[in-house]
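As a warm-up, study this chain.
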Amino acid sequence: MGDGEQAAEQAARPLYHRVLLKLSGDAFAPADTGYGISTQATALLAQELSDVMDLGVQTAIDVGGGNIFRGRQAPGMDRARADYMGMLATVMNALALQDALEKIDVPTRVQTAIHMAQIAEPYIPLRAIRHLEKGRIVIFAAGIGAPFCSTDTTAAQRALEIGAQAILKGTKVDGVYTADPHLDPSATRYESIEYLDVLREGYQVMDATAISLCMENKLPIIVFDFRQEGNIRRAVSGEPIGTLVHGGVR
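Now compare it with the structure written out below.
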């Protein structure tokens, strides 16, 4: 094999062998309303994930449920009970995504932090890792199984437990900005930013607990626009998209 062929082969290899993709409920919702589950949105997402699997990247997904129910935004309701309802909403999104993936022959397993054996496996880290090694996508639902914990924190913990090399944080904007780009046209995007700066400036990347977990364990976070076709594949391939959140030594 010549030098040119070797370079081309190396360029085609993904940068990450195992990743966790964090998706909010927005990823599943119709674009016009932001609520409910869109079969079109889940089908497009499934195709994007299938393309990533073709690269040989082991992919786990942590899903939110804000397109169905947000526990923090339930006025007058007991917070713990509202959070449990939000966890159930994440299970609905997970099942919708599993259905879309299996329709295009991508083997998928859903694992939940709340026991519901008729529709999903219980969350067991070693079993999740085994599924990933066998070429299956694993979708984590029901958060961490306890109230007062966000799906951001769940994503960080699950990523660490399964040995993911990075968290891919899919959002509706193409990275971390100095201000809300929808409100401030002068806002600029960071190509990279350190964990401490995210915490110090209060940027809404992930919640403080999740950022702290990633910082302590040197787990990079890539914040990118999941709606742009091919971006998930670009992220796992190491292309410079979105914003890289890291510890300062790269």
